Amino acid sequence: MRKKILSIGLCSVLSLSIAVGVDTWTVRAESKQHYANTTALKSNGKVKVQEWKGIPLNGLIPETASDATNIVLENGMTKPIYSTDEAVIENLFVETEIDSDRDGKRDRVSIKVYRPKTEPGIKVPVIYEMSPYRSGILDVPVFNVDVDLIPAKHPGNGNGRGGKPFAIAEGQAANLGSLGNYYVPRGYGVILAESIGTGKSDGCPTTGDEREILGTKAVIDWLNGRAKAVTEEGKEVSADWSTGNVGMTGTSYNGTLPNAVAATGVDGLKTIIPVAAISSWYDYYRANGAVIAPGGYQGEDTDNMAEAVLTRKTPQVCKDVIAELKAAQDRDTGDYSDFWADRDYTKDAEKVKASVLIVHGLNDWNVKTKQFAQWWEALGDNNVPRRLWLHQGGHASPSGNNWPQLQNRWFDYYLYGIENGVMNEPAVDIQREDKTWSKEANWPAPGTVSTKLHLTGTGNDLGALHLKPVPNQPHNTQTIIDDPMKKANTLIANPELDSSNRLAYVTPDLSSEVRLSGTPKLSLRASIDRPVANLTALLVDYSGSNPVIVSRGWVDPQNLHSANRSESLVPGRDYTFEWEMQPKDYVFKAGHRIGVVLIASDYDYTIRPKAGTKITVTPTRSEITLPIVDGRNAFNQ
User: Fold this and answer.
1) What is the DSSP string of 199-243?
2) Among 237, 444, 477, 528, fewest CB within 10 Å belongs to which?
3) Residue range 345-357: average pLDDT?
4) Average pLDDT over residues 507-527
5) What is the pLDDT of residue 636?
6) For residue 148, which of 410, 532, 525, 491 has the smallest C-alpha distance?
7) More confident: 51 or 258
8) Which residues, listed in sequence order, are joined to residue 249 by a DSSP beta bridge?
9) pLDDT at 568 over 70
10) Whole-number Å distance between alpha carbons of 193 and 397
11) E strands in 519-622
12) Gap between the Cα atoms of 26 and 40, Å rounded
């Protein structure tokens, strides 16, 4: 999250042919939100699309069909007709409804408005990006992770990052940033804002809770006449140039805030495009009760994040707020608590009125894949119009596969109400390991079946994974000795060799390719020789000498029944530990082997206690469940 992410670059004239006849523009009524305000005629579950000045409309934005609109389409998308040299640029402050720095005054957020110079009476929708990173990221200390784990007190109660879009590129006149350069000429306003406690904004950073959300929401309220904005000189300014229809986007933290604001159900927010975004901060800094680092930022937590973006003047006024984050985040138990519920947007998915285009890298180990998977599922459960775009990159903005055109068409559809077929296409675009793309109806892939693989093994020899159940051998056990200083990539290598620090199990060579699509789940029967430990499972693609970690999963064994509640464990007693790994979509090629490697601590992600913890595993009472397309049949082809 704190790494600098390149902004989405949209800088070329784009074209997209839509092969639809003038008289046959129709679109499915996808959900209750999709056509709540439509003025078009419905028949047999479809909407007969109306035209206005030759532009096909989907009925979502009735005001487009008026003299207040001035746009031109080219190849089905809004065409550049306004000059960036003549763009109106305003630096404003929007008053929020919060006082996060407790100075007795409402916080104000700093915004920069870019909008086309239009004729009087013309109104435009807005593409809006809020960021905590615009004034830089501070180098702050993080937590030491080379410390002992803390046993739970019985029974336990459970209380326990995106570039600088303001920058001006050298050698470009009237540079409005990547979003402004692309969308202002096409008839959109663009707003870039600074989150509370950062840059010129008031307040204190609070890492994703209600205060930060309301600070972000205030800009949408201003665009719809519900909040106040002033110039740097204090003169009040209205947004009478805007239709009040807003789309939010951004990458990483900048993409997380659109999720958060959409979960408030704020009027005026029509759509969001969250890229590499968080849907629950618990799953960014924790996993199944374990304290887990975001990839590349071992030791970071919510308080460090807030300190890193605390770039406002007089940052000392936020000292108490930062201290409260540190106390409430609870690194001792790692339990899910009210603190984390306040930063969990999935629980409020029923409030979402905006459509959502989720974009995520399948190899993102910073904002891990659970973030998109659980948000996608929650939105689907609540009939929110949605699409999903999965690429093979890591924590980064997307490129290729006509991504700029898709984003353009998406905003046109939901902010201008242009019928361009974007919601008639399959819901999921997914990039495969060979960089080719395919479209699918849903995710996980249709035809995915939960498929159990059973473990067998003896001593520290290489074990096996079996499709068929195996005889129970409760006295046949294997052991892992924790060495937190050994990295996972070292521990997965040479699985046929003995290692006291890991257990490995593999399938036979695959006779044909096997596709995994969804969330792997592990059930492990084991005992631990002390009250607390780390448990880590690695899903590995074995081929030759270059094994690949496909997925990881971590658990605090003390969270035996729930992430909400740690329980004390009796050393030496057998328990069944169950936990989910990170969701993935991955194809194991023919001739490869699917492997499961069990370790204790994971150097790059978990707390690293002193070495020596002994975990005793009963393999025949353990299994992994994989979401496999075509299930068991995939292994028999």
Assistant:
1) TT--S---SSSHHHHHHHHHHHHHHTTSS-EEETT--EE--TTEE
2) 237
3) 98
4) 98
5) 85
6) 532
7) 258
8) 273
9) yes
10) 19
11) 521-528, 535-542, 548-555, 575-580, 584-588, 593-599, 614-617
12) 10
Cα atoms in the Cβ-side hemisphere of radius 13 Å centred on 213: 19
Could you confirm whether 330 is annotated as catalytic?
Answer: no
Residue 384 predicted with pLDDT over 80: yes
C-alpha to C-alpha distance for 73 and 421, rounded to whole angstroms: 14
Please give the Cα distance from 59 to 126 (Å, whole number).
18
Per-residue pLDDT tens digits for 519-542 = 999 999 999 999 999 999 999 999
Left if phi > 0, otherwise alpha if psi is -120 to 50, otherwise beta: which for 208?
Answer: left
Task: For residue 364, indicate whether it is catalytic.
Answer: yes
Residues constituting the chain: 637
Cα distances (angstroms) measured from residue 478 to each of 174, 462, 484: 67, 11, 19
**Helix, strand, coil % in the chain, rounded to nearest 5:** 20, 30, 55
Whether the CB-CB separation of 536 and 600 falls below 8 Å is answered with yes
- In this prediction, residue 16 has a pLDDT band, given cuts at 50, 70 and 90, of very low
Using CA atoms, how far apart are residues 334 and 302, in angstroms rounded to an integer?
13
- In whole angstroms, give the CA distance from residue 275 to residue 398: 8
Residue-wise pLDDT tens digits, 416-454: 999 999 999 999 999 999 999 999 999 999 999 999 999
Task: Give the residue ranges of DSSP H helices in 403-554.
Answer: 403-411, 488-492
Kindly list the distances between the CA atom of residue 528 and the CA atoms of 292, 480, 572, 622, 631, in Å, as whole numbers in the listed order.
20, 10, 5, 15, 33
Catalytic residue among 364, 412, 482, 602: 364
Picking from 358, 368, 286, 273, the residue whose alpha carbon sits closest to that of residue 584 is: 368
Q: Which helix (H) or strand (E) holds 186?
A: none
- Own/partner long-range contacts of 171-178 (Cβ < 8 Å, ≥24 apart): 173/84, 173/85, 174/83, 174/84, 174/85, 174/87, 175/84, 176/84, 176/87, 176/89, 176/114, 177/7, 177/114, 178/7, 178/8, 178/9, 178/10, 178/11
Phi, psi (deg, nearest 5) at residue 304:
-65, -40
Q: Which is the catalytic residue, given 131, 195, 201, 252?
A: 252
Say whether 337 is catalytic. no
Residue 345, number of CB atoms within 10 A of its CB? 28
> Residues 395, 499, 517, 551: which is the catalytic one?
395
Instruction: Supply the pLDDT for residue 597.
Output: 98
Place of tokens 């894949």: 369
- Residue 479 and residue 460: Cα distance in Å, rounded? 7
The pLDDT-based confidence of 508 (bands split at 50, 70, 90) is very high
Q: Could you tell me what percent of the chain has a pLDDT over 70?
A: 89
Query: Which amino acid does the sequence have at 569?
Result: L
Biggest CA pair distance of the chain: 83
What does the pLDDT look like over 182-236, one tens digit per residue?
Answer: 999 999 999 999 999 999 999 999 999 999 999 999 999 999 999 999 999 999 9
- What's the predicted TM-score (pTM) here? 0.91
- β-pair type (448-456, 521-528): unpaired
**CA terminus-to-terminus distance, the chain:** 42
- Strands of 8-151 (E only): list them: 26-28, 41-43, 46-48, 50-52, 55-57, 73-74, 77-78, 88-95, 108-115, 124-131
